[in-house]
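In practice, a research group might receive sequence data for several interacting partners and want a quick structural hypothesis before committing to experiments. The following worked case mirrors that situation: the sequences arrive first, and a predicted assembly follows.
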Amino acid sequence: MTANGEPEEIQWVDDHAGPVVRPYAVTRGRARPVTGTFDLISLVSATRGEATPEAGLGPEHLAIVALCQRIQSVAEVAAHLDLPVGTIRVLLGDLVARELVQVREPRATAGVPDDSVFEAVINGLRAL
Amino acid sequence: MDYGHSERPAGAAPLPTAIKILVAGGFGVGKTTMVGAVSETRPLRTEEVLTETGVGIDDLSGVEGKATTTVAMDFGRITISDDLVLYLFGTPGQDRFWFVWDELALGAIGAVVLADTRRLADCFPSIDYFEGRGTPFVVAVNCFEGAKQFRLDEVQAALNLDPGVPVLLCDARRRESSKEVLITLMEHAMKAREARRRAATD
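A structural hypothesis for the assembly, expressed as tokens:
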């Protein structure tokens, strides 16, 4: 359906194929992770030095493990791999299920942070 | 959910916690500029791909016929300490992406609403949003060259803000100025929290 009433063309690949099809191909059609919710600022850290290629792991999975040798947020992983956040969440779910990465959910979603957090942020900003 | 408490290898330091602040305001008001001014790296960009029906799509059947939209968010990072990392997210400018805002605003400790006095109305939706959610916020008037200078109380009156909401002038390109805005926000958020706590115990 098009808004301006033009006849709808059946096209397998259109202008949107780039941003849509590739992310779904990377996750093999899955839109939801097998485990976890993954906030944008959940922090991800690899549990081992590198992941060896194995069935079910694609190059993107291995790239995430390599990237997360340094702690990264979900948003940073998505930005560095140049993939949408939804795609990254699915890949991270696979990696958590295989215990290749560990994830720390942000404290703020579990409750309001305490005064020490506010004070630490204020002091940290002043020191920048 | 046990994934949040995965065991680390023996001797490894615990993962830090992350908190976030939002930077909102109209299109072209300087959100990404402010994020970049205080971030330890250049701003990164992350994208959500949405189908026209928005959320709740579980499979790809029929995806070839759906219009898709990419919502981009620019963000930056400030490492406060070994166990605390602050992320700053610029909110997508268009009102039709409110549901992305909901995800961003969840757990945010506060927000900066950037305003441009030449287009003051552009920041109304952001102010309404944070007032409605009860998210602590400050209004920072980005001083563009050539813009008429208003007094802060004039801006406060024009925006019909609660008198407790801080309004300040800033230059989003400058690190010191943007830092000052964030510090003002944190102090305001702390006060708002204290006031809520007192109201709850009275």
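Before designing any experiment, note the following. Chain A touches chain B through 56 residues (CB under 8 Å). Chain A has a mean pLDDT of 83.
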